[in-house]
Design brief:
This protein is an alpha+beta fold. It has 3 helices and 4 strands; from the N terminus they run βαβαβαβ. It has a 4-stranded antiparallel sheet with strand order 2-3-1-4, with helices on one face. The longest helix has 18 residues. The protein is globular, with a radius of gyration of 14 Å. The chain starts with a strand and ends with a strand.
């Protein structure tokens, strides 16, 4: 099962707005794609606090895996949500479950 892990960095003063935007587009995606599981994380180790930016991660998984059409919908929703915040570059990584 193919899952997506997407991380991006934002200035600390924009982090609350960015995380709120991410919550919004993830809720919209879950409503549009039944069975989609999403997660939203903020890096919290000491090195993260020292680097002067906030690293956030989105996760996406669905039974049968995240296919190209769903990934395109995720990318479009995130791009629209992050555009007002300067559109930080999103780094997408895809992983397959080992024991699926």
């Amino acid at each position: 099962m193919r899952s997506l892990f997407v991380y991006w960095k934002v200035a600390p003063e924009l982090s609350a707005a960015a995380l709120q935007a991410a919550r919004g587009w993830q809720a919209e995606l879950r409503a549009a794609h039944p069975g989609l599981h999403t997660g939203l994380y903020r890096r919290s180790d000491a090195a993260a606090r020292a680097e002067g930016s906030v690293t956030c991660m989105e996760t996406y998984a669905v039974e049968g895996g995240v296919g190209p059409a769903l990934q395109a919908a995720i990318d479009a929703a995130a791009s629209a949500g992050l555009m007002p915040l300067g559109a930080p570059r999103r780094h997408v990584e895809c992983f397959d479950a080992v024991d699926a």
